[in-house]
Amino acid sequence: MQQSGNEMVGFGDDLVAPGIETRPVDTAAVFELQQSGNGEEGLPPAHTKDRSLDRFGKPAVRGRTGGRKSGLVLLVSQGLVALAFYVLEASIVLFTKYVMRQTNAEAESTFSLWMGTVYLCSLVGGFLSDYLARYLISIYAQVFLTVGFGLLSASVHALLKPHGCGIIGKLCDPHAPVEVLIFYISIYLIALGNGACESVLATFAAGQFDEEDPAEKKSKTSFGWYFVITSNIGRLISVALLVYTESTGNWLPIFWISTGCVITALVFLLSLTRRYRHFKPSGSPISRIAQVIVASWRNRNVQVPSRGEGLLYRGEWEIDGTRRKTDDLKFLDQAAINISITQVEEVKCILRLLPVWFCTIWSSVVFLQMPSLFTEQGDAMDGTILHFQVPPAGMIAFDIISTSTLIIFYDKLIVPLHIKLTKTQSKTVAELQRIGTGFVIAVVTMLCAGLVEQQRLKYSDGSTKEMSSLHILWQIPQYILMGASKAMVCVAEKEFFAAQTPDGLKSLEMILSFCCSALGGYMCHTILWAVTKITASNGEPGWVPPNLNDGHADRFFFLLAALTMLNLGLFVMFAYRYISISTQMRDGIEEMEVAP
Predict the structure, then answer these.
(1) Angle at 439 between CA 437 and CA 443, to 5 degrees
(2) In the chain, count of helices (H) and strands (E)?
(3) What is the Rg, in whole angstroms, of the alpha carbon atoms belonging to the chain?
(4) Is the model's pLDDT at 135 over the cut of 70?
(5) Which of the listed residues 290, 341, 425, 530 has the most CB atoms within 10 Å of its CB?
(6) pTM, 2 dp
(7) Cα–Cα dist 342/73, whole Å
(8) b/e string for 514-527 if b means 16 or more Cβ within 10 A?
(9) What are the distances in angstroms from CA 167 to CA 90, 162, 163?
(10) CA angle, corner 423, sides to 417 and 426, nearest 5?
(11) Count of CB atoms within 10 A of residue 34's CB?
(12) What is the DSSP letter of 41?
C-alpha cells in the first residue's frame, strides 16, 4: 500500500485483526518505530506472530507487550505464591495434630483430602481458562489466596490457646465449632486460590513469549526451567521458616509472612496489566470429545460403509492428512458419518491414553506420603543435632535437592547410564520407560520407609510419649529416593501427555495431569480410611494410631510398596500394548506410499 501525502501507513492483512482501522502516523513516529521495531523503512511496529492480543483486543506489538519484563514479574509472583503455599503444605499435618488435636490418621486424612481438592481446583481453573481470560482467573485466584491466608492468620490467634501450645508434648485446648469451621474455610479458600493459580498462571506467563520469534522462543524455553526453579526456591525458603516455627511453636508469624507474600504477589501481578499479552479462549476440548461420543451413540444403528461411500467427509475415511484410520474402538467410527475422521481419531487417541493415565494416579498416592506420614514418622524420632532441633517437615529439603539435581543433570547422568545398560545409542529415554523407572524407585522408597519405621519402633522408649531414640537423619535415604522417583515420573508424565495428546485437544494435557493428582489425593484418603477401619477393630490401636509407637506404620508402608508393585505390573502391560501417535502417523504415511 502506497503512502499518501498525510503519511498514511497501511497494515498487511495478516498482521491486523478484522475491524481495526489504519491511522495516520507522523514521520517522527515512523522513524522511532524503525529504530525500536523491525528496522525496515516504512513499516509499522512489528506484531507478534502467535496471534496474541494486547489488553484492548488488538494484535500485540512486540517490544511494547510481553517479553522478558512481563515474564520476570509473573515469575516473582509465582515464587511468592509458591513460598506461601508450601509453608502451609509442609506444616498442615503437624498443625492439625498439635493445634487442632487430631490423631495421626486424622491429620493425614485432612492433608490428603485438602491436597486432592487443591488439584481438583487446578482442574477447574484449567477448564475455566478455556472460556475466560487467564489473566482474570489469575487475579481471582490470588484474591482467594489473599483472603484465605488472611482468614487463617487471624483465626490462629484464637486457636493457639494457651500461649506456647502447638509444639511436641503440648497440645492446644479444644476449640469451639465456629473456630474449627473458620480454619477449614480458610484452608479450602487457599486450595481454591492456589489450585486455580497453579493451572493458569504458568500458561499465562509462557504466553508472554512469541514461539514464532526465534529469540523469544529461546527465552520461553529458559523461562520454563526458571519457573520450576522458582517454585523449588519457594519450597526451600518455606523449609527455613518451618525450622524456626516447629522448634518454637510460633505458628502465627509464618502465616502472616505467607499472607504478606500473597498480597505482594497480587501487587506484582497487577503492576504490568497494560503490558501483558492475551489469547482468545479457544473453547473446551471436552466439547469435541462429547460431539464424537454423542454422534456415535446416535448413529449406533446406522450401517457404516466400509470405504466411506455416503460419508459427510468423503475421501477422509482411510487417511486424513497423516491421521490414519485405526481399527480399534470401532464403536466410535459411527460418528464419522457426521464428524471428520480427524476428530474421531483424536478421541480414540485419548481413550488409548486412559489405561496408562490410570496407572499414573498411583504415583500421587505415594508422593503424598512424604509431607504426611513421613513427617509424622520424623516427628516421633530424635531430631537433636548438638543444640539444634531438626524440624520433621524440614527433611523435605532432601527431596527438593534430589529432585532438582536429577532434573538439572539428567542428560549427564541418566542418559549415559541408560545407554550403558541397554547398549543402545539413543540419546533420549522414552517417557514410558522413565515413568516405569520412577515406579520402581517408589517401591524401594516405601520399603526403605518401612524398614526405618521398624527400627524406630525397636528403639522407642516404651512410654506413653510418642518418641524413639532413632535419629531423624535415618530418613534421608527415603526422602532422596522419593525425590528421584518424582523427578522421573512427574517430568516424564507431563512430556508423555504433551506428546500423545492430539493437536486439537492439547489443553487436555493439563486436565489429565491435574485430574491424576486430584484423584491420587482422594485415593490416598480412602486407602488410609479403609486400613484404619480394618486394623483398628476389636480394641486394636490400628496401623496408624494416635501414638505411632502403639501401631505398625511399617506395615502400612509395606502395603503401599506391594500396591505400587501391582500398579507397576499393570503399567508395564498397558505400556507394552500402547501405540503412540508417532507410530500411527508413520503407519499412515507408509500406507499412502504403498497404495496402488
Answers:
(1) 115
(2) 17, 4
(3) 28
(4) yes
(5) 341
(6) 0.76
(7) 40
(8) bbbbbbbbbbbbeb
(9) 15, 12, 11
(10) 75
(11) 15
(12) T
